[in-house]
Design goal:
The protein contains 9 helices and 5 strands. By secondary structure, the protein is α+β, with helices and mostly antiparallel strands. Among the domains are: about 1-100, no CATH class; about 210-350, 2-Layer Sandwich (Heat Shock Protein 90). It has a 5-stranded mixed beta sheet with strand order 1-2-3-5-4, covered by helices on one side. The structure holds adenosine-5'-diphosphate and magnesium ion. Adenosine-5'-diphosphate binds near residues 263, 292 and 334.
Amino acid sequence: MASRIGTPADWLRALLRVPLFIKIVVANLTLLAAIALLSAYASSPGGWDSPTLWAGGFLLLALLNGLLVRLALRPLRQIEAVVRRVEEGDPRARVPESAIADRELHRLAEVVNRMLDAIEGERHLKARLNASMARAEEAERGRIAGELFNDTSQTLSAALLHLQLAARHLDGGPGSERDPGRELESARADVLAALSGIQRIARSLRPPELDELGPFTALAGHARRITQRTGVPIELSGALPPGTLEAETSLAFFRVLQEAVTNAAVHGAPSKVQVSIEVMSGEVRAAVSDDGRGFDVGALDDHPEAHLGVRQMFERSRQVQGELQVRSGKGEGTTVVLRVPRSQKNVGVA
Ligand SMILES: Nc1ncnc2c1ncn2[C@@H]1O[C@H](COP(=O)(O)OP(=O)(O)O)[C@@H](O)[C@H]1O
Ligand SMILES: [Mg+2]
């Protein structure tokens, strides 16, 4: 120990690192002692008798004392300056290592730096999430545009062609030998197909039951369609009376469970999926569990650009003060639990 602080520089460093409290006490004691010495000297025979000299000496000592206290407090001022710089928009500012900070101030600087790191990390995460939400939105728009162009607009073009042929027949123009009844029938079938395509797209954007009958019914409709598509049975239990959730929470609740149910049936290849919804005193709890192949939840972070579904589930839950847990493991099935706060208007009515 002693050998580690052997050189003069080490001694000085050790001296500067004594606690702030002791530094200030020592500075003040030095001033007191100096005043006592000065007055003893001034009153001794041959001592100072000039009041100017006396005052000058006193001022010098007070200045020295002020400097000492200021030096002792410098690490605190550094911390304050860093916090101000961060407030003014420099998120990278950090408290520098100080040679004169005592252990307490050193720890305080470390805590402040750690806190600033955490805030910056959170900011980055949020920016990444916003970017991925924007990407997901763009992908969704692309999908809808694709469906509208490739499916609906082509079906309507075909209907138009059939109608033109039927009209030509009525005019007696070229191609009028085609049976107008058959053309009209084909046009009718095309318009019906386009109509159901539009309904499907509108439903995928926002199921009409969601506003009218609430997320439980909307989810039941979604589950039915997924079962038709994948053949996986989906059991829905519990209830959620309309008005239990605020409008925004209700939408997020539906979207998160919609994605969880789709993922379970599509990715998990389970024998069945179970969805249960429970209204509790202050919150609504929903669980979606499947006995499928499961997956490594932590591994999703390795590909932040892909797999936006699960990421959005977390973000949506967070936006409405909800809490989401995804428990899964390879070969162990998956359970997604979502808790969201109940609407304050209806708490206690359930
Ligand atoms: N219930 C589940 N069972 C098995 N694998 C799942 C389940 N939910 C999610 N996954 C896995 O997590 C990945 C990410 O899901 P998600 O973020 O919804 O993206 P996407 O559905 O577009 O692939 C899926 O590709 C799948 O491998
Ligand atoms: Mg998905």
